[in-house]
Amino acid sequence: MLGNFSYCNPARLHFGEQAMDALAGELARYGRSVLMTYGGGSIKKNGIYQEVRKILEEQGKQVTELSGIMPNPTTDKLADGIAIARSVKPDLILAVGGGSVIDYSKTLSISVNCTEDPWEKYLVRQEEPDCLIIPVGVVLTMVGTGSEMNGGAVITNPAKKLKLDYDFSDTKPEMIPRFVIMNPRFTMTLPKYQMVAGIYDIFCHICEQYFSGEDDNTSDYISEGLMRSVIHSGLAAVRNPNNYEARSNLMWSATWALNSLISKGKTTDWMVHKLGQAVSAVTNATHGMTLSAVSIPYYQFILSSGLPKFVRFAEHVWDVDPVEKSDHEIAEEGLVRMELWMKQMGLVLHLEELGVRREMLDDLVKATPILTGGYRILTKEDVRNLFMLSM
């Protein structure tokens, strides 16, 4: 491993069917005022809301609810939350939900005491928080983003048609959720479309950190194991969404895919996420599906520039037999097998299925920042062509 790095991750994880038993003990570490954040109300239908509220009340907490947090949480919703949080002065923000709720809650935690515009400070200028950070705890109900064990978030600004992210995991570890309740059964009420989108988000997170660098790096070996697990468990979950073993493996893989462990000692890419986030910003499409629609065209485009890693990917992840094949043929077969898996999973492979039209191209290109960590640095014309190839 060639890189130099520091690593600190203070999140305490409680995993398994009895994970909720740990919530009372975690709540006891914080003061009386709790701001409970959640989404559209599905947790009330599946009983998770009632279970969490009961434990909060037994612990004598004064609870304020902040609901209606949407997929791709917005700056407008953040402003609403800041006003509520400033009035109740929470000792803890308890996020009950998936990545969007957690992203929102973490951004809220660093915005309540911020004297500047959080969008400009954190998302645009990428400045670290210099104010009091409210601790966040999580009851996880959806897997994919890995937001439960990192210090990053993604926020959408509808007025600017931009979806931007930050990640202060390494520099501000106190932003990482302090505790996470992880019961895989909580994820089983999720609609299949959302489950599949989340599974691909996990896989794509790993790819973004894998397809970069040229040295022999332990992080890449970990990534290959995680990818193989997601491929196997993803298909098992599609066949039977109530397969506890598959859902538990996916939940654990999602967490380790984006807690920054597998990025250590190397550069990372993240252009697939930038392309996908641009699509979400313009269309509000489901995040995981925007990633799946642009992935194959992007990886085909950069394959020659990172050929040794794509060969390794084909052989180690997809079990491609290299006998009597050129390196390019091996690498191409790996992407063919990846695309076949994506089809078996039921993932979106064309942007038109997400409502993207050619007249949106200018907005999509404008909303896509260019990163420099991967095997090829794109031009704006490359970005336009990739969106067209993804249609």
How would you concisely characterize the structure shown here?
The protein is an alpha/beta fold and 391 residues long.
Can you give keywords for this protein?
single chain; 391 residues; alpha/beta; Rossmann fold; six-stranded parallel β-sheet; two-stranded antiparallel sheet; 15 helices; globular
Describe the protein.
By secondary structure, the chain is of the alpha/beta class. It has 2 domains: 12-187, Rossmann fold; 192-389, Dehydroquinate synthase-like - alpha domain (Dehydroquinate synthase-like, alpha domain, Up-down Bundle). It is 47% helix and 10% strand. The chain has helices at 23-27, 42-45, 48-58, 75-88, 99-111, 118-124, 192-210, 218-239, 244-257, 271-283, 287-302, 307-317, 327-345, 361-366, 380-389; strands at residues 12-15, 33-37, 62-66, 92-97, 136-140, 152-157, 162-167, 179-182. Helix 8 runs antiparallel to helix 9 (244-257). The model has no long low-confidence stretch (mean pLDDT 96).
